[in-house]
């Protein structure tokens, strides 16, 4: 990352930190929390035992719904955590740490909720239990901030309201490094009953919504130097455009889409307008020449 981009990110982080604090203080009767996807942050299990998080109260969502594991470190490196930020000046360093990580990952969101940490963690933990068509039980990783907007968009308005009824407000940093919010309407009594069951049509919509991130993950694994030339928000927008353009050429396999992305990154998106591009992409995709590490 260039010095210029680092400077812009530092400025954006400072602005988000100020904006987040201004929103949190609007809920003086609520406690302030961060929801953390530890799998995205290296050594988070160790970080919560060091400054600036050492003095914070925290709990794994998995431990909250399985009390028998509460005194163990099983899965600590990959579990979602709820972290109490405290309030006022004492929260400043913890908030700054969380904002910085939110700018670099999709691992952090913040909540203002009147619930004590154990009860909030239990309710959040119960929402990780989901069922797909065919009665297949799955872990719903909504604590990844790329996932929850998709989940809320496919639920009925009533189910979405119940799902997010655990807080008065819920914020996250989007792909373009903007502070955004989920709609919340806190209820004292939780009407959510796990697991959350997705119909086949809802499952299909979630798969379609997640597909650009699937493509992007492949690009980062095989062509990270190329895709890293784009900013975080630009990467996802680029992949969505290329999926549409590739499908317009009637090229639908993951290998063909990845090949189109690599060609566009190397030669420019206008190169895809070449009339022979379909044959060229099919040839490269067939032998994976463009998508191997």
From TrEMBL:
Q: Which residues belong to any copy of the DUF4123 domain? A: 32-158
Query: Which protein are we looking at?
Result: DUF4123 domain-containing protein
- Species per Swiss-Prot/TrEMBL record: Noviherbaspirillum denitrificans
Taxonomic path: Bacteria, Pseudomonadati, Pseudomonadota, Betaproteobacteria, Burkholderiales
